[in-house]
Amino acid sequence: MSSIKGKIKTTLKQSQGKARDLARSTTESVEGNLERLLNKRITLGVTGFSGSGKTTLITSLIHQLQHFPEAQLAAFPPAIQERLLGVQMSSLNGLPLFPYQQGIEALTKGGWPEATRQESGCLLEIKYLSRPGLIKRRKPDIGRLLLELRDYPGEWLLDLPMLEMDYQTWSRQCFSLFDDGVRKSLASELIAKLHEIDPLQPIASATLQCIWQTYVTYLQQCQQAGFSMIQPGRWLHLTPEETEQTLPFIPLPALHSLSADQIASAPDNALVKVCERHYQNYQKNYIKPFYRQTFQKVDRQLVLIDAVRTLSSGQPVFDDLRYALAQALQSFDYGHNGFLTRLISPKIDRVVFAATKIDQVLSDQHEAIRSLTANLVQDAKRRATSNAIDMRCEAVAAVRSSTCVEYQGRQALQGVTNDGPGMLLHPAIPEKLPEPDDWEAMKSWKLRRLLPPQGMQLTAGGRLPHIRLDSILNDLLGDRF
Fold this sequence. Notes:
Layout: H1 2-37, E1 41-48, H2 54-66, H3 77-80, E2 84-90, H4 100-108, E3 120-129, E4 142-151, H5 154-159, H6 167-178, H7 181-186, H8 188-194, H9 205-224, H10 240-245, H11 260-265, H12 271-293, E5 300-305, H13 307-312, H14 315-329, H15 341-344, E6 350-355, H16 366-384, E7 390-395, E8 402-407, E9 410-417, E10 420-424, H17 436-441, H18 469-477
Parallel strand pairs: 1-4, 1-5, 5-6, 6-7
Antiparallel strand pairs: 2-3, 3-4, 8-9, 9-10
């Protein structure tokens, strides 16, 4: 009897706990909607393809806001007008806390923050003095803006177009990418295995698992080679536990030559049917929840692009980025966030595309990088046929790690690399989409990875040097102050 009573008490406690969690979540949701309705809350999504410096940029952005008296924020009016009062950081309901403190400690020790592989976030409460009223004697009110920062891998963004494709369409897209010279070389082993199997015949689970592992290895090699267009993106960072739980699917050749009747009459354990079921499972259990729980909640989006590295990697990598951007833009639900729209179905009303790590090129090349990014985005926007949107482009360095010096009679950059202090030389950056002559001039360009400035005292609130991060803040938040 005592055992039964104990179980009842435990069940009641669990139920009460769930009720409290539900009540808390409901209260936070209602409060959040009210704040959003009154323009006092904004959700900012921050993403970027692998290697774009997303974790470092978010860390720097938070540090600049929290330590605004010491920060260089000349392009952010609330800071230069001395209207900022304080910024507090807290966790965001339902998300792991963004590892800000770990990032600051890494930068203080002279290293880069560890890249985040999963979704995270935080809530910044920004207190400020409102603009003076029409009557000069009136004291400005103290305002409060709640900024939700949602950080997610850029590869998840590239999974969203898969919602609009069935399995056969996705397979055809994969094989069209295989035709590229570099990708074709990377996929040689995979392609050979795919052509050895009959999609209409049953396949053993172990055989499918083996080919799937080859496909995942191919995706990882594509990422290492600098390519951006990778699907499914989540498979790039699978843990051993996630690998065991994943239902594998692979692209199959020549599906267009099979009729609907042929596929329908194949046994349920035929390769094409197994892959189709697993593909639909991935759409249902991974892509759709991300779209509903994260992507649909975003009001404004910051997309980071490592344009400098992409240029130095050659034309195939650059063209792949253009294609990836076009795919990503198709998934954005653009539109103006009006009074009711903000409450019922918020849409992304502003996107800022930022070329990162521009401290790797001379300052007289920064505008060329910014212009090139604008051309990249406009090209992708036309190809995606997206709706009208407030799009902005910038070129930034979340942490400035180089200085300009004179070297052998010309301007050069000086910084610390893994090999120690050194000089960085580079060709002229094209302002528009590169022509053949531009690619020829950049063939010998070997980009060197910079380390952060040494000796920064960031844990004590010291200044974190940057390039135009204040312009990013103004583009994303300036109208809310």
